Amino acid sequence: MAFVVRSARVPPNSATFEEARQRTLEFFRKACRSIPTIMQIHNLEDVVTISQLRSTISSEIRKQAHITNPKVIDMLLFKGFEELNNILEQAKQRHHLIGQYVIGREGLVQDHRTKDQGISDFLKNFYSSNYF
């Protein structure tokens, strides 16, 4: 496990957009290669599949596709590597991963069931405004 953590290093600054693009692809490959380790460490097999996590990672990267400044891309890559290291070093627990990458941010699992039957209108409005 320590080998995986050491292999996820922050790259130096990019000189051009194409170099930053290549570093982004390298980050995506490293993140995808570490998914089985993450699933084993955090026991996520019963919640999500490898392909679903891979698509979540790619969607997080694609959210920033409009950025063309290499310095901004390098900063985002730094944040991505820090997030990956935090997950691999178990600085984030299982419920953090499930909340951020499985359920939250319009994630993979959408809960459309009605849980608030028989509750007052005030509580229904409160839950709808403060529920993920």
TrEMBL record:
GO BP term, pick one: response to oxidative stress
CDD domains: Complex1_LYR_NDUFA6_LYRM6
Keywords: Electron transport, Membrane, Mitochondrion, Mitochondrion inner membrane, Respiratory chain, Transport
Membrane topology summary: Peripheral membrane protein
Provenance organism: Stephania yunnanensis
Localization, UniProt: Mitochondrion inner membrane
Family the UniProt entry places it in: Belongs to the complex I LYR family.
UniProt key word Mitochondrion: yes
Name of the protein: NADH dehydrogenase [ubiquinone] 1 alpha subcomplex subunit 6
Any single Gene Ontology cellular-component annotation: respiratory chain complex I
